[in-house]
Amino acid sequence: MRTAVLVAGQATVRPLLNVLRELHIEDIELLVNDFSARVVPVSTPDLVIGVLADNSSSPRTKSESFTNEEVALRLGLMAGRGVPALIIAPPSSPQMHSPDHLITVARCPMTREALVGHVWAFTTSVELSSPTVVTEPQERHLENAGHYLTELDRLESESSAFAGRFERLVGQMLLSAGAAVVENESSRGLLEGRVDIAFMPSARSSDIVLVELKAGLLSEKLLAAAERKLQRFVIHRQAKYGMVLYHDVNGRTLPSRESTPLIVRMSARELIEKLAADPLPKVLDDAVATAVERM
Length: 295
Prior knowledge:
Blueprint: E1 3-7, H1 14-22, E2 28-31, E3 47-51, H2 68-80, E4 85-89, E5 103-107, H3 112-128, H4 145-154, H5 162-176, E6 180-183, H6 184-187, E7 197-200, E8 209-216, H7 220-237, E9 241-248, E10 263-267, H8 268-275, H9 280-294
Parallel strand pairs: 1-2, 1-3, 3-4, 4-5, 8-9, 9-10
Antiparallel strand pairs: 6-7, 7-8
Helix pairs in contact: 1-3, 4-8
């Protein structure tokens, strides 16, 4: 079986490679950064394994290793294309739950004794399952935009769960638009509490977009501060760019007065309305172009 192994940080993988070879899996492609793989291997593998690091939050350059969230996003994309995926997380990592039935999570030390059972069970289940037809992903517009606009109108600032409901709504909307999404709540620390959502616009894209969500009684001062904070994290993580996505409970539109490099500001309503007509990558490209024109 052709196997892709994606490695975050400085995680050790030699014991894993040895276990794979013991199981007679010799066709292994090791991917450690954006130079070794933009999003997925050139040829679609039969299965993919992601190895998370204890701490991959240190500053890095593009030539250095993936972060935990980058590995998680890529595994999500592969699962979306029908490729079974295994996440190996260190025991010290927060508890994780699989976001997809094709993704298996194993929290165990990187030793032969700990790995062999997890990897054997995973590879055996892949061999026994029916072959999956992998289709070429297509960019698409948001067909159920009206539903998300209605749900947005139903959000109430008086509710104690207002912020959480807004985050879930945005995450579901991005998934419906074809993005690969990691939410702060479900990532269990993968985003370090620094941003609310990270996503790739489509299965064809390797661009990681970091999102800061703001909802409630908003002001220009608050949104501008969010842009500056997000800009620092975008630079730290070397993401493509960041987005401050907001929802003002009084229905006000608060566009950026000044362009912040690497940052796009947009209301959730505007984003949903634009996605009703165009796919997410085009909507984002247009927003970035508009921001650049204001500079």
